[in-house]
Amino acid sequence: MARSFLCRAVGVLQLSRRAALLSGARFYSQSEAEPLTVRHQTSGIRRIILNNPKKRNALSLSMLESLRENILADIDSEDLRVIIISAKGSVFSSGHDLKELTPAQGQEYHAKVFNTCSEVMTLIQDIPVPVIAMVNGVATAAGCQLVASCDIAVVTEKSTFATPGVNVGLFCSTPAVAIGRAVPRKVAMEMLFTGTPISAHDALLHGLVSKVVPEERLEEETLAIAQRVCQTSRPVVALGKATFQRQMAQGRDAAYATASKVMVDNLALRDGQEGIRAFIEKRKPVWSHRAEKAHD
């Protein structure tokens, strides 16, 4: 059942969350003055800000662990409806910290960096709430991967996107997983083989981002999308997001079989029936935000 599929996914996330919390880790920049990421939440919208502009918001191991912790915090709370990831400074993220990828750290450390990065990127797609990237600047390599991994991306006209690893001898193979699923194959290959940046409008044309807006409207436009999500039912969105990811990895016939079954499961939800009832009665729905069945 689609519901059991979602429950299993959330169960894995709960284990990851407990591991992060049990570590008791605090993630700060080298100056120890400010945290690497900043999190605050209001009215169902969680804001996570990459907060290391002096290092171009590089996705160091500590930054990735901090991002993971802030994504997973109270992930099952009914008060959490949507997450917005943004960054301080003119660079959204320059990707991995290359100083962590020298022989001095060794292959075990390198593997931990890439495994943690992959975990964060898949986590964004597996959690039950939508994740929006709000980008005002440069996103390269794993930073571009982060944008591609988000469900929605709202960017400014001055934003650019690139996978320049090939130019420093480190092909962007892990960013290619997310980018290759977001843009046409030949566009991805040109980005990967040349490292040449693409503009915000080209990123929109090719499907890497959702919307391009003037810099002064970035906050307004992003919040408008987030607030619209907050008007919907949390379990309905969670079921829909999980199903979308699942069926996109399937062939056409299997995808239709999966989606058809989930539509029936959706109708069995209390909020599914509330929405239909409200439409018939010409009123606004009153969502429970609980994954409870209206009937068997």
Please supply descriptive tags for the structure shown above.
296 residues; alpha/beta; 4-stranded mixed β-sheet; 48% helix
Could you explain the architecture of this structure?
There is one protein chain. This protein is an alpha/beta fold. The protein is built from 11 helices and 10 strands. The chain has helices at 2-23, 61-72, 106-126, 142-149, 173-179, 185-194, 200-206, 218-230, 234-248, 252-268, 270-280; strands at 37-42, 45-50, 82-87, 91-93, 131-135, 138-140, 152-156, 160-162, 198-199, 211-213. The strands form 2 sheets. It has a 6-stranded mixed beta sheet with strand order 1-2-3-5-7-10, with helices on both faces. A 4-stranded mixed beta sheet has the order 4-6-8-9. Helix 2 links the parallel strand 2 and strand 3. Helix 1 packs across helix 9 (234-248) and helix 9 (234-248) packs antiparallel against helix 10. The longest helix has 22 residues, at 2-23. Residues 1-10 and 12-25 have low confidence and may be disordered.
Number of helices: 11
Helix content: 40-55%
Strand content bin: 5-15%
Q: How do the helices and strands follow one another from N- to C-terminus? A: HEEHEEHEEHEEHHEHEHHHH
Outline the biggest β-sheet: 6 strands, mixed
Tally the beta strands: 10
- Give the neighbour order of strands across the main sheet: 1-2-3-5-7-10
Radius of gyration: 20 Å
